[in-house]
Amino acid sequence: PLDETGVSAEDAALRAAILMEEAASKNEQGLIAAFDLSKAYDRLRLSQVLQLCLDAGVHPAIAKPMADMAFSRRRIKVLDVAGESFLPTNSLLPGCSLATHIMGLLLLRWRTDVRLYLPPQGFLRCWVDDSTLGAIGERILLVVLAALHAFEKLEFTDYMAVNRIKSGVVATSTRLEQR
Length: 179
Fold this sequence. Notes:
Blueprint lengths: L8 H17 L4 E7 L3 H4 L5 H7 L4 H12 L5 E2 L2 E2 L16 H17 L7 E5 L2 E7 L3 H19 L9 E4 L2 H5 L1
Antiparallel strand pairs: 1-5, 1-6, 2-3, 4-5
């Protein structure tokens, strides 16, 4: 995950609940937003892998083998039988040992953009194709706008799509939810 080491989904959910309870008890604006990327593995183009690595500061001596691994020949094995080998043509394959790391590099840009607006008591959690953020205070609308703008960048430059059915926002104020 792209957050504190060892923070599980349950820890993040508890942290979100505590943050919302704190906001409500202090009569402050509080917000939790969860975003899901739709068919993220299918949409990520293999041609993007090397550039994602380089943009994240991965040394070319490591980035090139990572990209090569994403393009390498595969076989599907069922029980004791292995099928014919094939080359991935467009997207990350499920079971690719680097897939979660590559998705992490993709979300690193989103996280970096949002972190600029996140207040000190706020949090971000990214895991594969899911991202969660929470914030309290006057700046929370800026945080949400930054998150949405960063996801628009992902949609237009990286061919990703936010699953609007599986994504959502919870706020301590109905006025905030309507915005």
